[in-house]
Design brief:
The complex is a heterodimer of chains A (278) and B (324). Chain A is built from 12 helices and 2 strands, in the order H-H-H-H-H-H-H-H-E-E-H-H-H-H. With 278 residues, chain A is mostly helical. Chain A has a two-stranded antiparallel ribbon with strand order 1-2. The two termini of chain A are 25 Å apart. Chain B starts with a helix and ends with a helix. Chain B has 324 residues and is α/β, with parallel strands linked by helices. In chain B, the strands form 3 sheets. Chain B has a 6-stranded mixed β-sheet with strand order 6-7-8-3-9-10, sandwiched between helices. Chain B contains 12 helices and 14 strands. Classes of the chains: A mainly alpha (278), B alpha/beta (324). Chains A and B meet through helix 1 and helix 7 of A and helix 3 and helix 4 of B.
Chain lengths: 278, 324
């Protein structure tokens, strides 16, 4: 199992396409951070402009925490598209290259092959989010320092500097789950076909449709929303409520875990019954 | 003395057991893809130490059978035993003792030859020491290119690396699906020598599918010919080819006069026809020198009297009869 996992990770990181996501995130975060750095206090000014008549804001509002929150809000929607490039290739890529034949004729069970590839995909997704966390929290706080975090949701909440960092950790974990669902879906599609382009495009199509349905404010779609995994993609923000919505957090985690297990199980079923004809 | 006799007896029993031990036993195997019956009631027995030729025209079901042996596809019905064990119930144990290449030698192009072997070796059910990788690379003649990425390899080099990955975990049974495809004559000769080495020196059992029939004739002890998924004939190559009459091609600059001469002589019964100025004769092989003398005595310039490659002829006869 260990050798197989190492083999899978080695394969992932030997392909240049695996770095597209990392490069894109790095470029985007750096652009955002440096533009905010040079634009000065415009962004917190934008957040507080309606309140500045009634309140007086002091301290370092433009800090690494705010940048991290802001970047995460922007990118959590888009990172899944980058993940599909690798996750959609995990099984179908072997079929395209013709290497399925050598892999499956080794003394390794198909269960192990699927499980290890699935884990490799999830590890890749985790590493991408860790990289995002490093760029946001690490570079962000290095550039902008720390301070209070001002969060504007339904209400404006200002978190004390020492009350912020611990919220990011579970928020990232919930985001990992959200990415995990996308990886699992692309992985499932990858088991159905023999060309990696199909699963990548199919997953992107599902994400686009579900994302649109998740934000449309029409009653008919409102009934549908709880069943769309994309509706839970931004639930990491629940950790930045003034009062933690524990039930909401658990529900979100449970729904996403359910999707992950479901997609993985279907993939396992498909792959263990599959005739390797590539 | 009695110890010596017991040893001889024991050795004889072991040898006999080895000869009779079935490494592959396929019974009533079927594989259906939607409406196409790719393998239709196939029965095959391969014994320990065999170099077993697996022949058939394109689409005969050879690769489908090999895919089933390598557990890439599932049989529709029938039983496959390898090393005496049912294949699918003992898949891991069997594959740990089996190596093979199926169709094209597709490897990880972005890795080096050595890395491919290390990686595939690491999931072969046993520890593969570096020395073994060196040995296998040496065996297939890729030592000098071991660090090159596979994408820079020619087809022939990929084919050799494909064989190397089949051998890396030192399997007892080696399944080779058209291993000389795409190789030049020198490469084909090297593969043939490698098969001899593996069979005669390393005592491996080899299941060899090939469309280059003369190749099977040269290396195989036993063979099967299949067509449309069915067994056409199975047996020892020498036994199957033990036929006194062969087709002989006569090449001359006067095909018409030579044909007339043959048809109006005692050689009449050997005449089969003329195609593209080559006269086909069906005759006993040992009568060729006599025919040659007869033609020369009658002022016919003989450029060649060539017995057709026996297995090729045999193969075509068998499969054409099946088609009819």
């Amino acid at each position: 199992m260990k050798n197989l996992l190492f083999f899978e990770l080695y394969k992932i990181f030997r392909k240049w396409r695996s770095y597209i996501g990392f490069f894109a995130i790095t470029a985007l975060v750096l652009i955002i951070e440096f533009s905010i750095y040079y634009e000065g206090n415009k962004y917190p000014g934008y957040l507080t402009r309606n309140l500045s008549d009634s309140f007086y804001f002091t301290g370092n509002l433009l800090n690494g925490y705010l940048i991290s929150y802001y970047v995460m809000m922007l990118l959590v929607i888009h990172i899944p598209f980058l993940l599909t490039l690798v996750a959609g290739d995990l099984l179908a890529g072997e079929a395209t290259m013709g290497t399925y034949r050598m892999l499956v004729s080794r003394p390794v069970s198909r269960f192990r092959i699927v499980t290890v590839k699935f884990l490799a995909g999830q590890i890749y997704s985790l590493l991408m989010l860790l990289w995002l966390a490093f760029l946001c929290l690490g570079l962000g706080t290095a550039l902008f320092g720390t301070g209070e975090l001002i969060v504007m949701q339904d209400i404006i909440t200002v978190f004390a500097a020492n009350d912020v960092l611990w919220r990011f950790l579970p928020a990232y974990l919930l985001a990992v789950l959200s990415m995990g669902v996308v990886v699992s879906l692309a992985f499932l599609f990858s088991s159905l076909v023999e060309n990696a382009i199909g699963p990548i495009i199919a997953t992107m199509a599902v994400l686009i449709v579900f994302n649109i349905l998740s934000v449309i404010e029409i009653d008919f779609f409102a009934a549908l929303k709880p069943y769309l995994f994309t509706s839970y993609a931004q639930d990491w923000k629940l950790f930045f409520n003034a009062e933690l919505d524990t039930a909401g957090i658990f529900k979100s985690a449970a729904v996403m875990l359910f999707h992950i297990v479901l997609f993985y199980s279907v993939t396992l079923f498909v792959f263990t019954k599959k005739d390797i004809l590539s | 003395m009695s110890y010596f006799c017991t040893a001889i007896l024991l050795n004889s029993v072991i040898r006999r057991k080895q000869i009779l031990e079935k490494v592959i036993e396929i019974n009533n195997l079927y594989k259906k893809f939607k409406k196409i019956m790719a393998v239709d009631d196939l029965n095959v027995n391969v014994y320990r130490g065999d170099v077993f030729g697996f022949l058939g025209p394109n689409g005969a079901g050879k690769s489908t059978t090999i895919r089933m042996l390598m557990t890439l596809i599932f049989p529709t019905s029938g039983s496959v035993k390898v090393f005496g064990m049912p294949l699918h119930q003992n898949r891991l144990a069997i594959l740990a003792r089996t190596g093979g290449i199926v169709e094209k030698p597709d490897l990880y192009n972005y890795m080096s030859a050595r890395k491919n072997l290390e990686m595939l070796g690491s999931i072969s059910g046993r520890e593969i020491p570096k020395k073994r990788i060196d040995e296998v690379l040496e065996l297939v003649g890729l030592t000098d290119r071991q660090k090159s990425r596979v994408k820079t390899f020619s087809f022939g080099m990929k084919q050799r690396l494909g064989i190397a990955q089949a051998l890396v975990h030192d399997p007892e049974l080696i399944i080779l699906d058209e291993p000389t495809t795409g190789l030049d004559p020198q490469g084909m000769k090297e593969i043939r020598e490698l098969i001899f080495f593996l069979s005669r020196v390393k005592k491996k059992t080899i299941f060899l599918s090939s469309h280059i029939l003369s190749e099977v004739e040269l290396v195989a002890d036993r063979m099967i010919i299949i067509d449309k998924g069915k067994t056409v004939v199975e047996g020892y190559v020498k036994e199957l080819l033990k036929t006194p009459r062969v087709r002989v091609d006569l090449d001359t600059d006067e095909p018409q006069r030579a044909s007339d001469l043959i048809k109006n002589s005692l050689w009449n019964s050997t005449f089969e026809g003329v195609k593209e100025n080559i006269i086909s004769l069906n005759m006993e092989k040992n009568a060729i020198p006599e025919l040659n003398r007869f033609l020369i005595q009658n002022s016919i310039n003989v450029f060649g009297l060539t017995p057709k490659r026996s297995l090729e002829e045999y193969f075509l006869n068998i499969t054409e009869k099946g088609a009819k």
